[in-house]
Amino acid sequence: MLSNRFNQLMFNNIRYYSTSGKPLIGFIGLGNMGGHQAMNLIKKGHNLVVFDVSKDNVNRLADKGAKVAQSPAEVAKQADVIVTMLPASAHVKSVYCGENGILSTIKPGTLLLDSSTIDPATAREVADKAAQHKATMLDCPVSGGVGGAEAGTLTFMVGGSAGDFEKAKPYLECMGKNIVHCGDVGTGQVAKVCNNLVLGISMIGVSEAMNLGVKLGMDPKKLAGIFNTSSARCWSSELYNPCPGVLENSAATRGYTGGFGSALMNKDLGLAVDSAKSIGEPLFLGNSAHQLYTLVCAKGEGHRDFSVVYEYLQKNNQDNNKK
Amino acid sequence: MLSNRFNQLMFNNIRYYSTSGKPLIGFIGLGNMGGHQAMNLIKKGHNLVVFDVSKDNVNRLADKGAKVAQSPAEVAKQADVIVTMLPASAHVKSVYCGENGILSTIKPGTLLLDSSTIDPATAREVADKAAQHKATMLDCPVSGGVGGAEAGTLTFMVGGSAGDFEKAKPYLECMGKNIVHCGDVGTGQVAKVCNNLVLGISMIGVSEAMNLGVKLGMDPKKLAGIFNTSSARCWSSELYNPCPGVLENSAATRGYTGGFGSALMNKDLGLAVDSAKSIGEPLFLGNSAHQLYTLVCAKGEGHRDFSVVYEYLQKNNQDNNKK
Amino acid sequence: MLSNRFNQLMFNNIRYYSTSGKPLIGFIGLGNMGGHQAMNLIKKGHNLVVFDVSKDNVNRLADKGAKVAQSPAEVAKQADVIVTMLPASAHVKSVYCGENGILSTIKPGTLLLDSSTIDPATAREVADKAAQHKATMLDCPVSGGVGGAEAGTLTFMVGGSAGDFEKAKPYLECMGKNIVHCGDVGTGQVAKVCNNLVLGISMIGVSEAMNLGVKLGMDPKKLAGIFNTSSARCWSSELYNPCPGVLENSAATRGYTGGFGSALMNKDLGLAVDSAKSIGEPLFLGNSAHQLYTLVCAKGEGHRDFSVVYEYLQKNNQDNNKK
Amino acid sequence: MLSNRFNQLMFNNIRYYSTSGKPLIGFIGLGNMGGHQAMNLIKKGHNLVVFDVSKDNVNRLADKGAKVAQSPAEVAKQADVIVTMLPASAHVKSVYCGENGILSTIKPGTLLLDSSTIDPATAREVADKAAQHKATMLDCPVSGGVGGAEAGTLTFMVGGSAGDFEKAKPYLECMGKNIVHCGDVGTGQVAKVCNNLVLGISMIGVSEAMNLGVKLGMDPKKLAGIFNTSSARCWSSELYNPCPGVLENSAATRGYTGGFGSALMNKDLGLAVDSAKSIGEPLFLGNSAHQLYTLVCAKGEGHRDFSVVYEYLQKNNQDNNKK
User: Fold this and answer.
1) Which sites are catalytic (chains A, B, C, D) (predicted)?
2) Per-residue b/e over C25-40, b at no fewer than 16 CB within 10 Å?
3) Which of residues 272-311 of A touch B (CB under 8 A)?
């Protein structure tokens, strides 16, 4: 009760701020990524009202002055702009369209910025429902990882009209460095999914080729050097080489810790696979790559960096096939 | 008969030149690539003795002053250095070790530079046999295509001892710009095969992702732009994008003509697949990529540029599934 | 025993409601399969009330004495037992749970028999909702094709409790010959999806092996004979061989017409792929098989029998790779 | 030396016997399979002269009265009929065409029966060389495993002319029950390779489907029962089900021990892959299956029965992805 009362008071305060000319920003989803993003908005001088299912996550933001809401609906009642950062499509549907969801209380004219990575079809579906409430929703998935979220250097891939993109840009610039307009609603997700499709495939490709070359007698640094000055050049070889020791600061060199987990890559490849399936387009290597990451995760390596596929794919040293 | 007599005379002349301090260079395999390479050696002032199964190919070089031999053995009898550029492992075995092959008449101390792309095991096997004749063989496969061969800007990936590499370098520099020492005999082929393994995989990956993105509503140039500034960045997207219109001068934009044929990519992926098989290492995406190019070739597209996989993989416009 | 007695009484009540003493059977989805199934129920003396989006489909049944309803809701208002045969999960959700759907007007105690092939998760979800309306839903997907539907010789794979299975059996026996109890709700779909997963994979396997053998000089009938008496023996080789001419009455021999379309196999493999994905289990060959059928459909062959993969996979006769 | 002298004497005796109307049978390769085959020939009253690299293997046969030779050449000098059972193509080439090989001393008119499983191209190549020595070689690979070899119930798939097949049959019938004429030289290998291609693919298919079904709640025996009465029916499900407990006497039920090792399946799939590659035919599932067995072997499971792929493919029980 007390906390409800407290919220009621806070609510009035917020209303007050909100009408004083400064927009109130709602933030829902304060995990590894969202927590840093919300913090950066506060650092840039914004007032926030936040919600998360974890009290710890909420408290970290409350300590920095964010107002606390008890549900997405309560956020939406107050906020002029809402940023969401959620794990998957199902969470986005529930936070926006579910009971006590954003759309149940949203104010006309609210700007909705979803930076979750979800399938493009869901992004369009939820944006359509938001439009029925006269709210504008843009899909703004990110790349850059937890490090980029903390440093405020994320890349945002934004789907929405040119006009809406201009409205969203100032807020996104508080959290990222590179804000790219991809096209209409949904294309932010399309860009993210397609980018990570290439990334997953080329990481496996580089892993297979590095392993093959090393087993056939080549020095790994020399082999990577040839790749990087030739037609095998790619981000996975040059900046994130999966062979331990090739790069001083790679995830591979520190035992495949940190970085971008295999389970996350598996999720993103799954989005690509689903999207292609929904329109009947073949995705041969995409599917094979997805299966390989599914196997890596099934064997308990989902938490390790996605470059661990290098280690996973190679022949065991102790060959006990002849037992 | 006359031409034999003529050759005999030329032969004597050559011997003379050859002992005058200037090495005589043999060149075997004067096709699309080798023809240009031989021409560049002549341009740099070298004397050549050449052989090819095609008279037309031979005549083009003879017109520029090259001596003509009737067999690899006849080349080897005279030359101090021999460069070979042949289609596949079987030709290399035959030209070096067959009847009337190079090793049947080779002079001790001859330097053998094989710029064919073949499997590393064959490269090592033939080099071993050459060593039994006190000749030194290095594997020097190239990248850069017909354009690079003509312009003399090829990259050579060289396998052999450091000392032998230094001896080979001046000759290779007449034909290429970037001469890379990869390690011991065979590693030139390893580097080439591994490089093209990554290339084939990433070309299919980029093709699948560009197709998926475009079909889901993205502008192809914008999508490629995002790839090229993010973690999907790779040679296949940046310099050789398979989607027509994205790059002004790509093979894709000119109807997948010219460039590097699908049949050649299929051959190189086949070398990777065979090499991995011979040592029991898995090659998941490599095998899938090889199968895809096998299918592309089986359907009659082997002569088109390897980026044609973009066109091949997509759904037909006239969907007659509901017939 | 008591509960059986009780059921007997309930059954009589139902009989009574139906007015003539005979239960009224609703049938929704009167396409290629459902039309024949409904006809067989009429032939066995049942009274039907039917709905389909196509008037032609409805009229064929009306001509045989079926009552016509204008919506699933109108069917459900009257029927004691409802059979549905729909194309995919989305249709099942809509026909049962949508506006004017079955559950909007359903009578307590109604027996719901869904013979559509859909994903097991949706089957369970809809059955749960039916239970909230005190109705009992069983998943009863079929095998046997249009021929089996017409002849009344379908196999039904049934998911539901043992008691409910006994209630459903008399109705299913009017439409099929082999009524198999698979386990709890959803397992009928599981059995169907897993069966067709093996079927799709083995059809491709037999196609690849028959093609390879024939191209290497074997007589196709002799090769099939060896398979069928050895460890390659399978339904796809023995009863449905994809090589034209091996079996007199196969789809292959009549130009891949009739039979089970590639688009349907693609759909069923898609269900397997989705189910495995939802629980994180790898499905390597299942995914490759799905991609191959996706490609077959993308090239416009979705309407041809699924054994057409034999024709699709092989090398073109006119090899124009050397153009 | 003494034993050489002894052999010399025996040699004379053998010649004598050999001309007395009873053919002397040479046997080379007395391992797990060949040892039993040779024993069965002796049991049927044949005189044998044998060679193997292992003295233990040779001694077992010598104890039963077989003459011992020191090389394939020494076998060939004496024998009228020679049976070989060797691990792979390289051994066949060496035993027949190498130094001290069969062809170096072979008598005109000798009948050569190679029951090794090798690639069809090598089978034809060696048969051609034998023909140059006026000897007749047939490829006679077997199925039936060590059990069948011991019991004399092997299936022989025989490639050669109809007349030669008739000459070979009486000898093969001493070692097997089912002697199948496949066509010209090489087709015995083609049949074997194609059969095992289907076998490997369907074993993985059944494994994936059994695993999927069980994880989705189905009883494994019930699921197998449905497969075996429906279109998923195949040898791998019915007689060799990979799910432990489904069949009482399967390799799966006894911990994947005994049976046909994964490394052997990997070898046979490799022959299929190579054969398809050599003629440019696609082999999508065949390649994926080969890669999967390559991975199984790379992880040290090559010695376990090939149905172990069921165990290998599934998700670990202890899901530590969330670590």
Assistant:
1) 192
2) bbbbbbbebbbbbbbb
3) 272, 275-276, 279-286, 288-289, 292
